[in-house]
Amino acid sequence: SAVHAASLVDPLMHSSELLQLLDISLSPSVIEYVVDRVSEAVNNALASGGVKSFTWSTLCRSRFSSWVSTVLSRAEITLPTVLVVLAYLDRAAPELCITRQDWAHERVFLGTLVCASKYTNDASLKNGHWAICTGVFGRRDIGRIEREMLEVLEWRLSVCERDVLAHHQGLMRAAGEVAARQRPQHQR
Q1: Are 74 and 133 in contact (CB under 8 A)?
Q2: Considering only CA atoms, which of 35, 101, 30 is closest in space to residue 62?
Q3: Is 7 helix (H, G, I), strand (E, B) or coil?
Q4: What would the 3-class secondary structure string for 65-99 be?
Q5: pLDDT digits (tens, 9 = 90+) for 2-50
Q6: What's this model's pTM, rounded to 2 decimal places?
Q7: What Cα–Cα distance (Å) separates residue 135 from each residue in 69, 73, 75, 77, 106?
């Protein structure tokens, strides 16, 4: 029987909702959904870590969003890996306690991304390549960020369908926004 390229098992073993998710593209709207989830997790962690007067300006968010998009593109990340990133964010969020806002959003995103990429791919980027993709962090920084995230996740990297489906509605809404914009005006 055929296997699904993203899961390496027969598609009949997956729910139709999961297969819907695997069919969407990594569009700007989907990336914004990921940025929103990272922002939510980090902003809550900063608040619980006692960071006073934290402000997440529109300019900071825009720069972060652009950086996320650049990293995903340079690292050639696929949607299945992004789905694992979202599951790791959900798992890590209650455990995060961030006491400094310097690079906090970037570190949390990158930590989940590196872990997800290494978990889902037989051949993954080395830390030196991740450093090039980020344009911000060095090889040692990448190693430290990865280890910190692994500790937050308590080294539990497995992901089940339920973990991914928690984002079905939000991702389908984000994908639908793209589809609605791409439809010719007379079909609306």
Answers
A1: yes
A2: 35
A3: coil
A4: HHHHHHHHHHCCCCHHHHHHHHHHHHHHHHHCCCC
A5: 755 555 555 656 677 776 777 788 889 899 999 999 988 888 787 776 6
A6: 0.83
A7: 13, 13, 12, 16, 11
